[in-house]
Design goal:
It is built from eleven helices and eleven strands. It is an alpha/beta fold.
């Protein structure tokens, strides 16, 4: 069974490849826009291609039965049409529910005529690297909503779930909501990061507008949406699910574990 991983050199796609290998998959094709720089493990077939460049896809799709679909909105209907015409039977997509900008991915996949499984993931723990410069230089994080709470997930756990589903049957027509194993406030995450660093870190509350402007250089227009989401989860915190553990047989990564593994980025 040939499995195609799109976005195979991206933050999640690269990890999907690694987890497929650890699960024993032996016919993996990786789609990369820069195959000469892919540096993927031996035995992985690396093919040139890009989801936004339709002409590159027919050859990449040929002979594939299952595909991990990285989140992309442009040309998506055409991408899926080419996949179905090539004989791809199942798609595992990273998308989002009706409250996100990624719901159109899930909707297009459902209309494609192929079997599907949706992975709905909330905030990535890696988003907290946005704090790194403040932590390194001042030891203080300035944000508007210290009591905003969610169940952020490690990208590696998303990849582990995707690889598991790609190598199993019985997941067709299901949307899995993936979270980390615990719901934590922003202030508590900062405290746990401080434990990992062996430092006392401080949370300084700023206004909503100050938070938006602070994030705008990194996020652009998305900054307003992001900060508004923080405000919403003060009164309505995101609840953790057990989907990662249920699907893979291993608990999800805790924020303390993630912080310890990424401490170097904050020093």
């Amino acid at each position: 069974m040939k499995i195609l991983v799109t976005g195979a050199t991206g933050n999640i796609g690269r990890k999907v490849v690694d987890h497929l290998i650890s699960l024993g998959a032996d016919d993996i094709r990786a789609l990369s826009n820069h195959p000469e720089r892919a540096a993927l493990p031996e035995g992985v077939e690396v093919v040139p291609g890009y989801l936004r460049r339709l002409s590159s896809l027919p050859a990449a799709f040929e002979g594939v039965q299952r595909m991990y679909l990285a989140p992309v909105l442009e040309n998506l209907t055409d991408v899926l049409r080419l996949a179905r015409e090539a004989g791809i039977e199942r798609v595992v997509d990273l998308s989002g529910d009706e409250n996100t900008d990624w719901q159109p991915v899930a909707q297009a996949v459902e209309k494609s005529g192929m079997s599907w499984t949706h992975l709905y993931a909330g905030e990535f723990m890696d988003n907290f690297t946005l704090w790194a410069d403040q932590v390194r230089t001042t030891g203080t994080v300035r944000e508007p909503y210290p009591d905003s709470a969610n169940a952020a997930i490690a990208m590696d756990d998303i990849a582990r779930v995707a690889a598991t589903i790609l190598t199993q049957d019985g997941h067709d027509g299901i949307a899995y909501t993936l979270t980390g194993p615990e719901t934590l406030t922003r202030a508590e995450r900062l405290r746990r990061l401080g434990v990992a660093l062996g430092r006392d870190l401080t949370f300084e509350t700023v206004t909503h507008d100050e938070g938006v402007e602070q994030l705008r250089p990194a996020m652009g227009d998305f900054a307003e949406w992001y900060v508004s989401g923080l405000a919403m989860t003060v009164e309505h915190p995101q609840q953790a699910t057990t989907a990662v553990a249920d699907l893979t047989g291993r608990p999800g990564t805790t924020f303390a574990e993630w912080a310890a593994a990424h401490a170097g980025q904050f020093r």
